[in-house]
Amino acid sequence: MSLHAIIIDDARSVRMILKKMMVELGFTVEEAEDGKKALEILVQNGPADVALVDWNMPVMNGFEFIQEVRKQSIYDEMKIMMVTTESELVRMIAALEAGANEYVMKPFTKDIIVEKLTIMGLINNENASAAH
Asked: How far apart are CA 66 and CA 69, in angstroms?
């Protein structure tokens, strides 16, 4: 059974880069350009294994998305990785306290994404090696 990811970023280019990485790691991927759209996809299709979320987006930003998701127990098992240009420690702490599992700053490398997915227990070293 393949793992399922949702990539939430208003920048199409970032979604494309992350999608390519995640597909190479064996994930099926859905995309949303803001938190509200992502919530609609999750309601329709059920929880993803992992959400990769940008902070700064129109309609509903990544922080608001995390807060909404963490209010609902159906998403308790879903891992959340914040992938953002926000580099201030206060932002990182806020995201983690709101329920993000990991925090990655842009620009990122595939190795960083793989490392975070491994830390969250979503992939193991075999998956990561196969994808390089």
From this structure: 5
